[in-house]
Amino acid sequence: MSSIKYAFLSLLAREPLSGYDIKQQMNGRVNFFYKVNNNQLYPVLAKLKDEGLIQVQSYEKETSRPARKVYQITEEGISILKAWVVSLEKDATWDDFMLKQYDSWLMEPQVMCKLLENKQQEHQKRLGEYKSKIAEFRDKYKTIRNYHPLFSTIAVLEMGVRLEQAYVQWCSHMIDSYKIDKI
Known about the structure:
Helix content is 65%, strand content 8%.
């Protein structure tokens, strides 16, 4: 199942929503770290319904507007979402990981701490690799001017170092937050 389905399940795990409400929630809560195109909404909802992961709770009729469907996650949908949150995917993107964190309220804190510790180790390893590569280039070429191809290579690696440092710090912050039970 693609992660977009989990984004919709994430919202529906919080409360029943219409398709319009899901769009609004995506824009207001999830699009900061996970992007979804509006044209994906109704086909994905139909597929989730066919798979038994959501159901139509009711049809709301407003004045002159057509009735709108309100979707609700099923117990099977909750189970699938929880299993996805704790799954370890080898090549998962940071966006997918953040979406899993968005659903962390469904999980036990110790489970989330273990996931965060694993993710923190991944980023620490990558941080070390980036720093090592930069040091290797700097040892080989003492002065690297802006017209040298390695100038931009090192610049990109340095950005990677900063991002990895931020990821490591955030994971540490979240682990501490779970341990003291507040953020």
